[in-house]
Design a protein that fits this description.
iron; 8-stranded antiparallel β-sheet; 6-stranded antiparallel β-sheet; iron-sulfur; Glutamine Phosphoribosylpyrophosphate, subunit 1, domain 1; Rossmann fold; iron-sulfur cluster binding
Length: 531
Amino acid sequence: TTMSASNDLDDGVHLNTLDDMEPERYNEKCGVFGVYNVLKASHTCYYGMVGLQHRGQEGGGMVSAERSETGPNKFHLHRGMGLVTDVFTPADIEALPGDAAVGHTRYSTAGGKTQLEGYQPFSVRYRQGNLALAHNGNLSNFAELRAFFEQHGVLLQSTVDSELFLHLISHSKRRSQLDQIFDAMTQAEGAFSVIVLTDNCMVGVRDPNGFRPLCIGRLPGRGVGGTDGYCLASETCALDLCKAVYVRDVEPGELIVIDENTVRSGTFSTLRLPQKFGVSQCVFEYVYFARPDSIVFGEYVTKVRREHGRQLAREHPVPRVADGELPPVVFPVPDSAAHATIGFIEENVRLGFPCQADMGFFRNPYVGRSFIAPNQENRDIKVRCKFNPMQHVCKDRVVVLLDDSIVRGTTAKQLINLVYAAGAKEVHFRVASPPVTNPCFYGMDFPSREELFANQHQHDQSSMASWLGVKSIGYLSPEGLIDSTVKGSANGDKYGFCQACFTGRYPVPFASEAIEDAAKTPLPENIFNKR
């Protein structure tokens, strides 16, 4: 339901605990979108959230800011479970008045829990006024911060790390609200792209490592009195849907302020968070998660993925066939592997390895991503509902099936079985990223080391191929991934990339207890940086 966001923060202590809530740890990979100085902001925010639906399909929420000349501003909140189009009816959107709004699409990576208290944006009123916050990422010092607040008597509403930003802001001893927000962000470690909406401005923050993307858009003439409006988004595909002009990315470690001065002058006020661990943007955004029509980390995702495919062809080309036989037919697992497959085919042909491009699967567009179904049982049935092989493409052919990554292996094995059932005489598997061997603590859905496919086979590719039922398997090497990412991106050599899920080298330290708990297996001493 839509409601006024009336949870009060009295100098840091607020809200009631939920005594019946089971302990859980949410690691969220989400989409965030915010608009400022835009007429009927909730309408624009809604479409921005639809554009970010791929980043979270389990639920969503929005807070709008209704300005008042005579009394305190009102923040209105609506959130719910399901797709954006299910969460918001036209009446819900109309009940979110104001010229500023912030939205969030949610993707939980731990459990399949459905408590709305963990859904964002979080919205409160404290001594400095209203505050709404949406966060994409995962805090590495979550346990440390949570313990601090619990020891000081703060009652936490949820087990979501994003809530701690509100307490950090509220407990700050700085005088101005902007300084309090800055102070809070300097105390957070890990992955966070955050949008904060206040009574007077919209703030966008990207962690100093730059793990998660965040970009700035301008909405020409869409503001009050024909002025320009502004928006912040996880990806530029959301800007495109709202007809916003892409301005630039929020830089790693940058705090950007969009306020009335921005509306008047077109300029942004910025602050810089202290740099502790270097820049390490998540390379998996390019590999899988970002939408291919987006610009992420300053480059089109499609361009980088094609370069991944070219490098994969150089490392693991298609197999040779006997004279007189048809060349191997190559097709992707739809849809995220499509552009890597184009690069793979182009480079194979250039290198003198004949192959034929085709589309071997029909993808049912009405079934969500198997990767972000809440549990494994749901994933299994959804693969069969989602993909149907083209028999005329597969029958009596040597097939090279290409995917962007293998995490658990469930989808890959089922797809390979479908290709054989469609009449393929031989199947080879190519992967446009290295083996995933380590859990992610920066917001991706790799909760346990023991359930990762490569670890189940002790990194033995012959064992992997045998289990999958393929003649050969070929992964892009870690070095090849980074080289091709840098080559495919105009800004690739400006910043570094995190590939901890492939290498085990975590750029931001975690307490050993957190890693042991998530991995459930003993760790080598060099798997993480100790404090």
